[in-house]
Each structure stands twice: as C-alpha cells, then as structure tokens.
Amino acid sequence: MALFTTLAVTGALSAGAALAAGLATYGTAASISASNRAAKASRAAAQTQVTMQRQQATRQRRQAIRANIIRRSQARAQAQAAGVETSSGFAGAMGSLSSQLGTNLGYGSQMSGLGQQFTSLTGQANYQASQAQMFGSIAGLGMQGFQYFGGFDSGQTPSSSTPPSTPRRTGGGGR
After folding, report:
1. Which residue, 10, 78, 138, 174, is the most exposed by fewest CB within 10 angstroms?
2. Among 30-44, 56-70, 146-160, which range has the highest average pLDDT?
C-alpha cells in the first residue's frame, strides 16, 4: 500500500526514482515494525527473567529455613542428650542460629532485588537501543529524501554560508 501511495505522489519522477522511493519507504516501515517486535520480545524476556529470579529467591529462602530447622533440631537433641538444654550456652547457640538465618534471608532478598533491578534496567536499555535504531532509520530515510529532492545542493550557494570577500590592496605602497 505504501509503495502505491509513494508511486502516486511521485508521478513527476522517473519510474526508477519512484521505485527507489517506494522501496526506501517499504524498507523503513519494515525496519520500524521489526524494531517494535524486537523491543516487545526484549521486554517479555526481561519480565520472564525477573519471574525466574523471584522463584529462585523463594526457593533459596525455603532451603535456608529448612536447614535452620534441621540445625536447631540437631542442637536440641544433642543438648537434651547431654542434659544442658536449659543452659545459657544452649540459648546462645539457638540465638546464633536464628541470627544466621536472618542474615542469610536478608542477603538473599537483597541480591534477588538487585538481580531483578539489573534485569529490568537491561530490558529498558535494550528497548531504548531498538527505539534509537528505529528513529535512526526514519532519519536516514528523511535525509535521503532531502538530498534526493535538492537539499542544500540545488546549484546555488546560500548567501549566509559564504564568507564576505576581503578587498585586495592594489597599487604602490611598497616601502
């Protein structure tokens, strides 16, 4: 459709020039469409990776809690066997295990959040890069059209870009 519209608009041009303009328009439209599809796929991939990171963090938290429960049970069984279950040393060991669990869970949550942020920012960067490429294609097409239809090289030099001429001194004055 864009090709026929371009051909109708450029009726005064030669057939070859009209075909070239139509192909340039079609190529740019296809490039824009592909860039948009790539950007959507990039965002979807980033979201999938964030979901995977959340699932992995949840699994790691569960494993840390299970390991803590097992260590506490083993310590309690050993303390009962030794008859020191009510001692301050046993209470300190239980407190230490709880503290270690809290530290591990906090670190895991922090790393998961940073990983999700990194993935999200990477997805945004990929999207912006595809947008830049798409708009670069549009600008390239516009510049080609500008140059094709005359641009700055229309045979006359604009007066504002020509430096003023400096008059030469003629005559004597030779000392």
Report:
1. 174
2. 56-70
How far apart are the C-alpha atoms of 134 and 144, rounded to whole Å? 16
Residue 167 has pLDDT above 90, yes or no: no
The distance in angstroms from the start CA to the end CA of the chain is 77
Q: Round to whole Å and give the CA distance between 166 and 164.
A: 6
pLDDT, tens only, 123-154 = 888 888 877 887 887 777 777 777 777 766 55
Residue 66: what pLDDT?
92
Q: Which residues contact 53 (CB under 8 A, 6 or more apart)?
A: 112, 115, 116, 119
3, 13, 25, 85, 132 from 35: Cα distances, Å = 20, 31, 15, 67, 9
| Rounded-to-integer distance, Cα 35 and Cα 27, Å | 12
What pTM does this model have?
0.53
User: Which tokens hold the place of 2?
Assistant: 């864009």
Instruction: Say what angle helices 15-82 and 88-148 make with each other, to 10 degrees.
Output: 180
Residues 6+ apart with CB under 8 A from 49: 119
Contacts of 127 (CB under 8 A, 6+ apart): 39, 42, 43
